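Work Package 3 (structural annotation) set out to generate three-dimensional models for the target panel prioritized at the project kickoff. During this period the team completed the workflow that converts sequence records into discrete structure tokens, so that structures can be stored uniformly alongside our sequence database. As a representative example, we reproduce one entry of 281 residues exactly as it appears in the project archive.
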Amino acid sequence: MRGFQNGFSLFELIVVIALTSLAGVWSASTWVQHAEDVATESMGRWLITIKESVDQMLVRQADFLSGLSSPTASSAVYRDIWRPTLNELLQAGHLASGFSMHAPLGYDLSIRVLKPIGLCLTLGCKIEVLTIATPHSTQLIQAGNVTRLGKMLASLGGHGASVTHLSPQRVRGAIIDLPNPPALDMAVLPVGSIVLHSFYDTSAEVTYLRQGEKRDVQLDANLSLAGRLNAAEGIRTGGGITATGSIASEGHLQLGAIASQSAPCETSGLLAQSNAGGLLI
């Protein structure tokens, strides 16, 4: 009698190996996709943090950018305030000290402050900033992937736009639609580029005086000061200047009023030029 043998046939072994291989490939693919999703999400959060720092810079530097005031100590941080860098934003205190200077994915970052639009000195104007992430040459294929772009824009909460194969001549997002390039002096952005838009309106601030004021300030009423009034140049007034303390000048004091020595004064203590020459008190 022939003995009964236990084991697997060759066909069964082939099926098991094939199924195991498919499971391994599927698991590896899933892991790779998960890693890509995490990196894309991290890239979006990295860009949003930079946008928030740019928004802070706009608030602090709006007077200087719009020409309302002279440069301040905080402006000196920037070598070119129209093209700030991440290191300069970090030095200015707009980024945390531990913030990474390198993008989670293969992108280069640049920041462009556009020239203000409007009557900055009288009515106020708008200042716009573009934060631009362009993919490295080795990342152009992956960066142009619609799935990746969609996930990255979703992580930006509607504040971003991208250049896609569908419309390479535009930079489009949920609330952004710009030509490509976004400015005349910029190069065309490659497919896969991400753009974030920051905006500041100075019209609410233009009515106030500030330190380092560069405008010719005109008042229709009196100006009262509890302290001293210092001027590097002349002070011109259509009325009088009244001081309970002393008035000192390192230059000339010019009087426009002319009076006659025999004429009565409207108020005691006035100074005027004599019509015959000299000074009358």
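The radius of gyration is 34 Å.
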